């Protein structure tokens, strides 16, 4: 039996950078830092799912920054996933969605089951509408939530302003320099659990 050699498509959700540099694009900032943490090439212009986007290609991880607006991320993610499935065996390929999360502390990241509620996150709603987990029983589909804190007031207007206002340099540094180490650890945990099920 050949050795199990898993590969990961990691797609960050957010709004296009640098025009929309806000906490809502926390996944993009974390992805940018993840290239250094994983010791692979920085993100560069490329084409995935027939769209121009930023990509970092490594032997195990393909890191892709979704080029679309957050709320319509699903079709792009689905195309990128289909493209990867043409190149790799589904049984050795995992899809990881990197996204912002109001309910977690800034600087923390956590694995989230695919089936868990989007909790009003329109990017996740769009992706889940475009990709059904039960269609890919051999491939782990998971989410990694990147904490951005949340404002004390919970009315929709305050929350929207909080996630969409320009991000501070200090918070961006946390997302690009600290969060990627947590994400790397979570990816390793995911791989170890997956290997345990296969081998």
UniProtKB/TrEMBL annotation:
Belongs to the PTH family. It comes from the Eukaryota. InterPro entries: Pept_tRNA_hydro, Pept_tRNA_hydro_CS, Pept_tRNA_hydro_sf. It holds the Pfam family Pept_tRNA_hydro. It comes from Cordyceps javanica. One of its GO terms (molecular function) is tRNA binding. Keywords: Hydrolase, RNA-binding, tRNA-binding. SUPFAM superfamilies: Peptidyl-tRNA hydrolase-like. Transmembrane segments: none annotated. The keyword RNA-binding applies. This is peptidyl-tRNA hydrolase. Its EC number is 3.1.1.29.
């Amino acid at each position: 039996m050949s050795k199990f050699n898993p590969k990961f498509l990691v797609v960050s959700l957010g709004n296009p950078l640098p025009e929309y540099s806000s906490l809502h694009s926390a996944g993009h900032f974390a992805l940018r830092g993840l290239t250094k943490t994983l010791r692979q090439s920085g993100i560069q212009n490329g084409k995935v799912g027939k769209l121009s986007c930023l990509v970092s290609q490594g032997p195990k991880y393909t890191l892709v920054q979704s080029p679309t607006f957050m709320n319509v991320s699903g079709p792009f993610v689905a195309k990128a996933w289909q493209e990867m499935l043409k190149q790799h065996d589904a049984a050795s390929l995992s899809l990881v969605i990197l996204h912002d999360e109001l309910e977690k502390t800034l600087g923390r990241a956590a694995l989230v089951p695919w089936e868990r509620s989007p909790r009003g996150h329109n990017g996740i709603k769009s992706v889940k509408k475009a990709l059904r987990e039960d269609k890919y029983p051999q491939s782990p589909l998971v989410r990694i939530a990147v904490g951005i804190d949340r404002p004390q007031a919970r009315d929709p207007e305050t929350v929207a302003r909080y996630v969409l206002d320009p991000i501070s340099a200090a918070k961006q540094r946390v997302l690009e320099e600290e969060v990627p180490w947590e994400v790397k650890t979570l990816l390793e945990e995911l791989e170890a659990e997956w290997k345990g099920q296969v081998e």
